[in-house]
Amino acid sequence: MLHQQEYLKSVDMTGRNWKTILNLRKESGADMYIIRADGNTAIGMGHVMRCLSIADAMVEAGIRPVFMTADRECVSMIEDRDFEVYVLGTDYRDMESELPVIEQYLHTQNRQAGGHSVILVDSYQVTDAYYIGLRQMAKVACLEDMGRSYPVDLLINYNIYGPNLAYDNKITHDTLLGTEYQPLRKEFQQDIDFTVKDKITDAMITTGGSDPFFATKAFTDAFLAEKRLQQEEIRYHIISGPFNTHVEELHQLYDMNPYVEIHEHVTCMKDIMKQCDVIVSATGSTVYEVCALGVPLITFYFAENQKPGAEELQKITDVVNCGNYALNSTETVEKAKESLIRCLVEKSYREILNKEEKRLVDGRGAARIVKALIRLGSTADRQ
């Protein structure tokens, strides 16, 4: 474990001093690190995207993780980032059924490598029984944002409300809580200059990896129809995620509109965000990326599990939470429109948002998670 010990010494808790380490699995027979996550049209790509951020940080630490997915829906996205994917061939909604498949895989791999495994799980489909079974095979860490204690070795809740939750240490062995563990994409892990301009010329609308309620159209139409916004000739940047089933309709609606630009297959979200003066975003990982940049933000959410994050963000900053679009789309859109108008007329308000947001996230959460995973691996029993 010498390589990993050197790495732990070289990485302070700011995550700044990365030391290049050669492939641990091949050269030292060290731990196998596995990431278990799914992405598809039903659940979106949030789980996979944040796990890819952690995977990138693992590579920086000299570790090449293997991804496990239930099916092939998100395989190409992971393989495009040069990570190995093992497809379990199971139903992502029934995770207990995959335990025998994982056990067989680990038995084969560990026998060949002579090591042991650490598995990071990111899923809303998990059960206590699943984790109990998994811990018989490996050290287990999980990403969790519902406030539920699970029988795992390490529980990570990187959300703004994470420290407010009372996890039971009799069930969960250890925890990492709060935005300092937010695993942003690599492009957001460095200090980035963003200047609040005198005038709003560009705004972004993003609903995440999918848009099940076609909220993009509702927001865009409302903004385009508002006379106070029309006068400024704002250009709206629509982000169409990989599982957006309405993308063709978006093109039919807005391709001829000079004030709308549709972005698909985005490879560098940071560049588009930096163009914009305000971003209207669904609550999720994107919100923390926006905060890292300091672009003035307006939020809304689709699901109840996103509500605590939206409410806590509004509580400790001046960011407006426009509410649950799925329950009250009209009110949510109206609040977003009024918030956008306020951003338009009050530069001082945008300056406040810029400062408040940047204080929340420093972009080094993935590094901190990897440090904890390596420590977890160093405590695993070798068979």
Commentary on this structure:
The chain is of the alpha/beta class and about 375 residues long. The chain folds into two domains: about 1-185 and about 365-380, Rossmann fold (3-Layer(aba) Sandwich), CATH 3.40.50; about 190-360, Glycogen Phosphorylase B (Rossmann fold), CATH 3.40.50. Helix content is about 40%, strand content about 15%. The chain has helices at about 1-10, 25-30, 45-60, 75-80, 100-115, 130-135, 215-225, 225-230, 245-255, 270-275, 285-295, 305-315, 330-345, 345-360, 365-380; strands spanning about 30-35, 65-70, 85, 115-120, 140-145, 155, 175, 200-205, 235-240, 260-265, 280, 295-300, 320-325. A seven-stranded parallel sheet has the order 3-2-1-4-5-6-7, with helices on both faces. The radius of gyration is 21 Å and the shape is globular. About 45% of the residues are buried. Residues about 1-5 and about 5-30 have low confidence and may be disordered.
* CATH class group of the largest domain: Alpha Beta
Major sheet details? 7 strands, parallel
> Would you tell me the overall average pLDDT?
89
Task: Find the count of extended strands (DSSP E, 2+ residues).
Answer: 13
* Low confidence ranges: 1-5, 7-30
**Please, how many domains?**
2
Q: Name the CATH architecture of the largest domain.
A: 3-Layer(aba) Sandwich
Number of continuous helical runs: 15
Q: Percent of residues in helical segments?
A: 25-40%
Short description:
This protein has about 375 residues and is α/β, with parallel strands linked by helices. The protein has helices at about 1-10, 25-30, 45-60, 75-80, 100-115, 130-135, 215-225, 225-230, 245-255, 270-275, 285-295, 305-315, 330-345, 345-360, 365-380, and strands at about 30-35, 65-70, 85, 115-120, 140-145, 155, 175, 200-205, 235-240, 260-265, 280, 295-300, 320-325.
